[in-house]
Amino acid sequence: MSEKLSNIEYLNWIKRLKTKIREAQNKVAFSINSQLLELYWELGRELALRQQNTNWGSNYIESTALELRTSFPQIKGFSRRNLYAMRQWYLFYSQENEFMPQAVAQIPWGHNRLIVSKIKNLKEANFYINEVIKNSWNRDTLEIQIDNKLYQKIGKATTNFDRTLPEKQSKLAKQRLKDPYNFDFLGLEEDALEKAVEDELVKHITKFLLELGKGFAFMGRQFKIEISETDYFIDMLFYHVELRCFVVIELKSGKFKPEYAGKLNFYLSAVDTQIKNTNDNPTIGILLCKKKNKIEAEYALRDINKPMGISEYKLTELIPEKIKSKLPSIQELETKLSKFEDNKINE
C-alpha cells in the first residue's frame, strides 16, 4: 500500500515538474517573441520616417535589406518583403498609438503579418488578435477564420438570449453564435437535403467543430430521448465547456418556419429535465436553416422562455455575378472537351 502511494506521489511530483518546465518554456518563447516584435516595430518606424522625410528614392528598402543581411547573416527576417511588412505593420497600428499595442506583442510575427495583409480596420484586427490569444490559433486556423469572415458573423444570429439568460452568459452565448455558418467544406450543392447535410457534418466533425468555434464538444447525432413512451431524436447534441451547458442543434434544409422554434423548445425542455446536471446552465438551442426572415425569427422567439438562436448556413459561397458571367457554361466546357478528345485521337 505504501509502495503504491509512493509511486503515486512520485508521478504527481513528476507531473508538477513537467508543468513548471512547460511554463518556463512558454515564458521564454513569449519573451523572445516580444523582443523580436519590439525590434520589428522600431525598424518599421525607421522605415516609415525615412520614407516621409528623405528623398532616397523608391529603392531604399531594397538597399536596406541588402545591408542588414550582409551585416547580420545569422539573423533571418531582413528580406525586402519582410521590411516592407514591418513598415506596413507599424503604419497600421501607429494610427492609434505610437507605441506597439500590448496585445499585438502577444502573438507571433507570422500572425501579425497575416492580419495586416488581410485586414484594413483596426477594430477588426484587434478582434482577431484577441481570438488568437484566447484560442491559441495557429497561423493556418487564423487564415481560415479571416477568410470565412468570422468578424462579420459573430453576434449576428437572431436570439432571445438577452431575455432568457443572465447578462454575463447571454453576452458570451451571443459571441459564440455566428450568422451565417459556412459549410463549404462539405462539398454539397445548395439543394442538399437535411440528412445529407447531417451525414457530412458528422463525417467532417473536426471541421464542423472549427466552424462552430471554441468550446463545443460533440455528444452525438440523432440523440434519442424518450417522453411518455415515445422516442424523439435530436439532430445533434453538443456540450459547451465555457458556457457549461448542453447545446441542441437542429438542421432545416429550407426556409425558417415559426413552428421549428416550438419543436426546438420541446427538445430543450426534455434535455433540461432528463440530461442536464444540477451544476449545468440551461440548455441552449441553435436552429440552422438555409434561409430565414429576421422579423419572422424575432416574432417566433418573442414568447419562448428557453434560450434559443436562429442562424443560416451556406453550403457554397456565391460567385459574384461579374465573375459568373465570364465563366463558361457546362455546354461550352463539354464542347471544348469533346474537341480536345477528337484532336488527341487524330494525333
Structure, explained:
The radius of gyration is 27 Å and the shape is globular. The termini are far apart. The chain has 347 residues and is of the alpha/beta class. The longest helix is centred in the N-terminal third of the chain and has 52 residues, at 2-53. Helix 10 packs across helix 11 (205-212). A hairpin with a 4-residue loop joins strand 4 and strand 5. The chain has helices at residues 2-53, 60-71, 80-93, 109-118, 122-135, 139-147, 150-153, 161-164, 167-176, 194-203, 205-212, 258-274, 294-301, 321-324, 330-346, and strands spanning 158-159, 181-182, 216-227, 230-240, 245-255, 284-291, 308-314. The protein folds into two domains: 2-147, no CATH class; 161-317, 3-Layer(aba) Sandwich (Trna Endonuclease, Chain: A, domain 1), CATH 3.40.1350.
